[in-house]
Specification:
The protein is mainly α. 77% of the residues lie in helices and 0% in strands. Helix 1 packs across helix 2 (32-39), helix 4 runs parallel beside helix 7 (104-129) and helix 5 crosses helix 9.
Length: 195
């Protein structure tokens, strides 16, 4: 078996163990010792693959959800992408709640980089389709604006069950993203014409 395959299988083993532990207790109460004991390996093996539990958590979330969302075409199917994320949160409710124990800002940090990438792709594809060129700092501002909104909504979805209406949430996000990005880009193109 190739080294990459063995390494991937080892990472998956650690992720499975972490997920099992997260079903029982908050992330802040989980130790590397518990993970390696559950996997039947030594601490060196863990630290060969990950610097700490947070790095393992981020890798696990990427494998299970974020990489899947990145492969979806958010430009043409906001609904499918958003539903996938909301379903993931619902299907892993106890685990997500226990991840949330590390704090609101830390959880946001886990999602922020990846959702920044996703929103940048959506905005740049809309610019390309509309044949619009905008200053980089304005594009960066738009990406940050929409990323903040999406990650904020996801955090609210995790914490407050009363906001969990998938159909409405998807419909609202879809309307806002589609309409506001298109209109904002048109208005910005008038204000910042290409030189």
């Amino acid at each position: 078996m190739k080294h990459e395959t063995i390494s991937l299988n080892t990472k998956k083993m650690f992720a499975t163990s972490l997920k099992k532990l997260l079903e029982k207790k908050p992330l802040s109460k989980i130790s590397v010792s518990e993970i390696v004991s559950d996997c039947g390996v030594n601490r060196k093996t863990f630290y060969y693959h990950f610097e700490n539990i947070n790095e393992l958590l981020k890798w696990m979330l990427r494998q299970e959800a974020i990489e899947v969302v990145k492969t979806m075409d958010m430009n043409s199917d906001y609904e499918k992408s958003i539903l996938f994320v909301l379903d993931y949160i619902d299907n892993n409710e106890e685990i997500i709640k226990n991840i949330y124990s590390i704090g609101k800002n830390e959880l946001k940090h886990f999602f922020y980089e990846d959702f920044t990438e996703i929103m940048r792709s959506v905005i740049e594809n809309n610019m390309h389709d509309a044949k619009i060129s905008l200053p980089d700092d304005f594009t960066d501002f738009l990406v940050k604006f929409y990323t903040e909104a999406i990650t904020g909504l996801l955090q609210e979805w995790i914490v407050d069950k009363s906001v969990r209406n998938k159909e409405k949430t998807v419909q609202y996000i879809q309307l806002i993203l589609h309409g506001s990005i298109t209109n904002t880009l048109k208005a910005a193109a008038e204000k910042y014409p290409p030189v």
